[in-house]
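the two lines:
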Amino acid sequence: MIALGLIVLAVAFPKEAKIGDYQPLPGYLGRAHVEPVVQGALAPIAVCFEGRGDHASSLDVQLDIVASGAVSHSMVELEPADEQALTCAQHAVCSLTFERHDERVQRWGFSIAHQGERAYLMPSLGFHPPRRLPLFLHLPPSEDPVVHDWLVGALGPDVYPPAPPPALPLCATPEPPAPPPELLEHTQP
Amino acid sequence: MARSSPHLAVLLLGFASGCVHQGATSQTAADNTLRYAFSVTATTGCTLRDPDGTEPATSTGPAGKLAWSGTIQQVPTRRFRDGSQGAQIRFGDVSLSQGDGQTVPSDLSGLSVELRSFGDRDILAIDQLEHLVGEGLWGDQMLALWPALSPSVPELEPGETTRRRSSLPFTLDSGMGMPIAFDLDWSLEGPVACGQTSCWQLRYAGPASGRGLERTESWLTKYRLSGQASGALLLAVEDHTIVESELTLALELETDLFDPATQTPRGSILMDLHQHAILTRTQEAQ
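prediction for all of em together
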């Protein structure tokens, strides 16, 4: 049973790629990559797709994850922030934003499926512990230096004043790399 | 008959909310989706205390004001072995204003948690609260939303007042946070007209209390909460779903801060929390 599980994992995640790697997705004339990770509590990450619009059909995107540590696969949830997956293939560059729902997960691995064929591996990404105030405390930055210093002393300089949320990474528009020959053969008449 | 109808209405709440996902096989999850427009306002004021209990030279901390408005979907997801029911609570488009600033889109939009409750709507857990918490999201400032969305309605008859204890387990997956208890006196009126249907009208009020703690690498906090809750509720006579729900909280929260390694006191923050939540059932997909 354990061996079977390892085989399944090996098929789904044949290797770990580096951040920024481009790998071909059979049947889809384009590339995908992950923008630099935003650090922070349950920070969203953007998975960017760069396509040529050669396919009228939608890019059926599914994400599986490999979580390091003691968190099991089933305890982790990813969900797209919107329905972009349905029209993603019709844009030259588009992105999907995914949420991390369990802060115990420190690393992720992604695979993407197109038309039922799971063939693309996304990199693993790392996260850092969250930075936030204790629960229930809403403490905007104080203009009173005495109050400011008191709160810094009580909460710590790494907690107060609260930092603005990290900006969501925007998908860059890199030069489209030449598709590999086997992909051209597959898609050209 | 006049006495048994409201009794029946309340008894059936468990059926309406607990078994809603087990309807006819022709029903889809979308059929059971409840949609609400909501707004929550939260104002805070705080007083600082030194570790020895005295107030520093300037003891009034920064005041906060937050206001959300938007939509929520409640979709039944699963039934647990103890009979409780899980439902995905998903935020639609949500706007947020901070202080006197402009209203901007909130990052809560598109996020979801799982609300686990019993048939009487008493909240057992809110899973995955973690990702509603933090600067810019401020989900931990929306305490009034959850009891308004899932009020624990007692069994009672018109004109009768019944006390019931209900809970708001505002805890993270780590178990840290603060369970809050409400001892509410409920009364039932109705049926009354509400839109094109009839509703049971319920009102409630009573004290709230809670104790909890939270520990991270940066801080150790101990929470003590007390205050008052009051609200009103309109339940559809037909299916006992929430048509409108309103809740006001006036709470005092004392947060004792400690060094997480040495447990040396760092001081205390006393906060006045005033929150108001309104939910209104909507029929159309948002």
